[in-house]
Structure formats: structure tokens, C-alpha cells
Amino acid sequence: AGYIENEGQDTFLFYGNKLGTLGREKDWERDERIKELTCIYNIAEFIEVSENGEEFFSLLPRYLSFGMLYPDEVVVYSVYDGVEYGQKPSGDNYLSARVTVRNQERGEIRVGYHDTSIELLPEEQKMLDEISWMLNLALERKELKEKLSRMGEEEAEYHNKLIELTRKIDDQREEFNNQAKKLSVVNSYLNRVNESWDKAKARLETIFKAIPDEVVLLDTDRKVVMTNREDVEPGDYCYSSIFGRDKPCEDCRLARILKNKVPVILTIKDSDRYLQVHSLPVYNREEEVDGILEFYRDVTIEKTYDQQLQQ
């Protein structure tokens, strides 16, 4: 080689049988760039065919090592969504690229060498940045695709649920219609029963009013159900409306009949008159006492004559 300075410009002259080394240097650089491009293309293809992030990051060292200057010495470490893959490079001599999906940082890729003295090239950082950019786009597409798939599955599930719900509503509507028909029949029957009951009640009231003695029908709560006395209303307590008391009688016929289930006949004094009381139990279908029917006959005159005869 020779050197000539000519008008402020440096000129180098090369000659002899070493001139081919310049071409070989260019060939080496070209081979390195081809290797890096091949690495990028292989990783881009692997990104698309990988099933999920776990599979991709687990096999990433195998693909990424090929694009580095010394493939056998490469150490690849990555973390994605809190899960770590590979081996961390020792020291601070490593290349790094962020994994960002939809403007949200999700992880990192680090590439270094076992031998920390090996210099990392700017071209290798560019390759890693390119791989990271492709990975970010691919992950975003995959997540969007998975989201659309889930939305499709949810839509299909909702559609099936809607069909099932519609079927249940139709079944319930049919059941309601059947119940309505049954209730209509029952209502018609109850109307006939009510009409019969009204007629029977009117007939019974007529019979009650035709009886010359005082007649009272009581329930088990001592409330008047029916009577022929004009001054007593149904729903009143017998001891207050008939006898003018504020509490049940000491010798209550209802209590005795509920206990013994047999009629009771006795004579009581009510104010200035004597009453002969006939208390009869009223049974329901279960043969339980459902109330009592009492007849009050005024025997004051007979009682007075009897006392006079005794005197």
C-alpha cells in the first residue's frame, strides 16, 4: 500500500496480490446481512405458526441465535406477561428490546454472549428491534383474533341460551294456558258452590230467624258467626256482645266442648233473667270441633215459680 497527499486530499494506493481481501470483506458483510435477514424471516414465519406466546418464547433462542455473529455463544432471555424464558445474560453486555402490545409493555427480550468480552454489533441491535416490532404486531393480531373468537363463541352461547330461554318461555306459556283452563273450571265450580252457599246461608238465616229462642253460632275464637238476635253483629265476641262482659265466662261452654266434645246443657243467670243454654258441638270434615251452636231459652218465669214453690 502507498499514500500520496495531493492538493489537501489523501490518496491511498493498494497493489500486489492482497487486493482480493477487500472483496472478501464485502462478501463477509453481505453474508452477515443475509444471515440476519434469514433470521428475521424465519422468526416472522415462526411467529405466525406458533400456537401461543409460551411456545414462541420457549423456542425463540433456537431461531434468534442463527442471526448473531457467534451463534454457538448466544444467550437469549425473554419475559412475557410475568413468565420468564431462557437464560439471563451475565453482566450488562447485552442487547434489549421491549415487547409492547397495544401501547402496553408486556415483556422484554435480551440477547448476549456467554463470553461477555465479545462486542455486540449495531446491526444485531437493529435485527433485534425488527424482530421485536414484528412480534408486537403479531401478538396484537393474535390477541385480537382470540378476542374475536371468544366473542364469536360467546355470541353462539348467548344465541343457544336465547333459543333455550325462548323454548322454556313457550313451555311455561303453554303451562300457564293449561293452568288458566284448569283455574277457569275451578272458578266456575266455585261460583256454583258460592251460589249454593249463598242460597244455603240465606235458608239457614231464615231458619235462624224463625226459631223463637235466641240462637248463636260461634267459632273456636268465641266470635259470632251467625245469630237471630238483631243487636248482635257477626264477628263480635260472644261474651261482650251477648253477656256484656270484658272477658270470657268462667264456665265457658266452648272450652268444655273443645275438651270433652260433648253437648252441654245448663242454666245461667244473665243480669235479671235466667237462661237455659243448650250448647252443641259443630264438627268439620276431620271430625274436629269447628265451633258450637247455642240455644238460649228464657226460663225466668219457670225459675221464679220454682223458687216460690220451694219457699
Please tell me about this protein's structure.
This protein has six helices and eleven strands. Helix content is 50%, strand content 25%. The longest helix is centred in the middle third of the chain and has 89 residues, at 122-210. By secondary structure, it is of the alpha+beta class. It has helices at residues 20-49, 53-64, 122-210, 238-241, 253-260, 300-310, and strands at 2-6, 9-13, 74-80, 83-86, 94-101, 104-113, 214-219, 224-227, 264-270, 273-283, 289-298. The strands form three sheets. The chain has a five-stranded antiparallel beta sheet with strand order 8-7-11-10-9, sandwiched between helices. Strands 4-3-6-5 form a four-stranded antiparallel beta sheet, with helices on one face.
Instruction: State the low-pLDDT regions, or none.
Output: none
Residues in helix, %: 40-55%
Succession of helices and strands = EEHHEEEEHEEHHEEEH
Tally of strands: 11
Strand order of the largest sheet: 8-7-11-10-9
Radius of gyration: 55 Å
* Strand percentage: 15-25%
Class derived from helix and strand content: alpha+beta
End-to-end Cα distance, whole Å, is 174 Å
Shape: rod-shaped
Mean pLDDT: 83
Total of DSSP H or I helical runs spanning 4+ residues: 6
Largest β-sheet summary? 5 strands, antiparallel
